[in-house]
Amino acid sequence: MALAGKNIVIAVCGSIAAYKIATLIRLLVKADAQVRVIMSEEATAFITPLTLSTLSKNPVLVNYYQPDTGEWNNHVEIALQADYIVIAPATANTLAKMANGLCDNLLMAVYLSAKCPVFFAPAMDLDMWKHPATQHNIERLRSYGNIIIPPGNGPLASGLIGEGRLAEPEEIVAFLENYSEDSLPLLGKKALVTAGPTYEAIDPVRFIGNHSSGKMGYAIARQLKQLGADVTLISGPSSLSIPEGIHLISVTSAAQMLQACEDHFAAASIVIMSAAVADYTPIEVATQKIKKKEDQFSIPLKKTTDILATLGARKKDGQIIVGFALETNDELDHAKDKLARKNLDLIVLNSMRDKGAGFATDTNKVTVISRNGEIKEFSLKSKEEVAKDICQLILTHPLING
Ligand code: CTP
């Protein structure tokens, strides 16, 4: 059994759906998992700690300290001992606190101390669920690497019908079983991902750069990690936070990115190059700040090494290489040309003509072209969802799945 022996912390929030947690705990205990329950103060109004402690065979913790003995409940220890933390039902309020790092109860302190995979199963009324603030919080949680167990569609406690029902206990257990490391499809595989822009120095204070945020590459790195891969992310300058459990190598210039890629390429079976690498770099970098003199000024540039083409030329059996192409015109032709020229297996095409696609947005719209000429067009979605689509294509690719 995939969950046998796993330490699972169930964090219960104040929602009418909390009654389903009794069944969830029974199922997990039956699967031989060790279950510890923590609750928010509000959750105790919906289901008693006594019920959940009896079912989980462990004391239930609500506060930072035990009111009777004054003993401190060590949130760090609870979090570090957990193999999985499951926040269920996750209310709109707790999701908002998680997205913003608030820490006003034991449950939030455990969440913030977690190093293991954190799952959250939302439960709320359909309009609360659809509200942009809630959806924005969920996107943020995804970007932190937290995993959503999606809510179901159906009758809600309010009497309305729609999305927002807590996933059924059986579904939550199945979700956790499928996630279990033993069944992760990319377990044992190494992945190399590039992300962000490169900065090419002109003088000590200036550079040539671009608007890439790194969001697409970071989302791909997180997704590959969730599928079990051992991920190295080589990133140009980016303000994004370091994804949990990923080996991050920070670089500045195209030359540094090339070196880092060459160091890690041979070991990787999945290579995804989403970085917006500068095509040209100044021939010389001024050692001192260039002073303003002439009305017109030009900087002699030389081509950078094409990292993707360099790696493509060295590709060995068992390696899959995915490139990106950002185009403004004749998109498909340019992308197909790049795929062939750089010896790629897949190319992800963004068109600057599509609204919401490309740099510095939270969304993207891509078309993926494979070496055998297959073309898959996707709709506009969040970069997290696009990363999922790309990873699914990799998972089903004969080089990985053959
Ligand atoms: N790329 C790279 N090294 C470079 C330039 C680009 O590895 N020096 C990679 C990017 O990470 C991306 C792909 O090549 O995966 C496509 O980059 P793009 O700039 O669109 O392609 P180019 O071949 O440079 O073509 P052009 O700029 O003429 O469109």
UniProtKB/TrEMBL annotation:
EC number(s) per entry: 4.1.1.36, 6.3.2.5
The residue ranges of the Flavoprotein domain are 6-175
Residue span(s) of domain DNA/pantothenate metabolism flavoprotein C-terminal: 187-395
Cofactor: record remark:
Binds 1 FMN per subunit.
Q: Where is this region: Phosphopantothenoylcysteine decarboxylase?
A: 1-190
Please name the pathway. Cofactor biosynthesis; coenzyme A biosynthesis; CoA from (R)-pantothenate: step 3/5; Cofactor biosynthesis; coenzyme A biosynthesis; CoA from (R)-pantothenate: step 2/5
Where is the region Phosphopantothenate--cysteine ligase? 191-402
The entry marks the following residues as binding CTP, namely: 279, 289, 324, 338, 342
Q: What does this protein do?
A: Catalyzes two steps in the biosynthesis of coenzyme A. In the first step cysteine is conjugated to 4'-phosphopantothenate to form 4-phosphopantothenoylcysteine, in the latter compound is decarboxylated to form 4'-phosphopantotheine. Catalyzes two sequential steps in the biosynthesis of coenzyme A. In the first step cysteine is conjugated to 4'-phosphopantothenate to form 4-phosphopantothenoylcysteine. In the second step the latter compound is decarboxylated to form 4'-phosphopantotheine.
Member of which family? In the C-terminal section; belongs to the PPC synthetase family.
What protein name is recorded for this chain?
Answer: Coenzyme A biosynthesis bifunctional protein CoaBC
